[in-house]
Amino acid sequence: MTEPKTHEPETTLPDINPLRKQVQAKIKRFEFLSSTGLWILALFTALSMGAHRSFDFLPPLSEGIHAILGEGPPVKYINWALVLYGFSAIILVLTNMASDKKPRGALAHLGYLGAFYIFYHFSKGLSENFWAIFAVGLTILGLQSYHVWNYYHEKIYEQNEILEELNKLAE
Prior knowledge:
Blueprint: H1 17-34, H2 36-52, H3 63-69, H4 75-98, H5 106-122, H6 126-170
């Protein structure tokens, strides 16, 4: 008696090209996102240039609007707020970097720094305190930009490893 032949079905790997394209698309997205910190730094630089010129490119506020807004806060209070904000923001960014969290909040930092420029401008203390805001802003946004760049380059590295494994499977 002869034993029945068992035919093992040939296993073929599914087409991995769609998966490869998906990984390549992720890499491109991460490359774009890795440069967003630089765009925020560029926006802050443009804002700082306008503040250095005392916002002379904007139309002046009318007396009625000045009356509604009132006088700006005393410069010494703004100084303390800037110091507290600077230390808090730096600690926040460094903590996020250390815990490898997804970077967030760059636009908020840009808004806060812009608000400091405006507060100093209305309190007539911008010219004396411009460089303090600029230094704090460059420190915070520079750290944030590095965090963004580093975070997304790690993601790009991971996706490149996946892509290499897919290429090995295709061979």
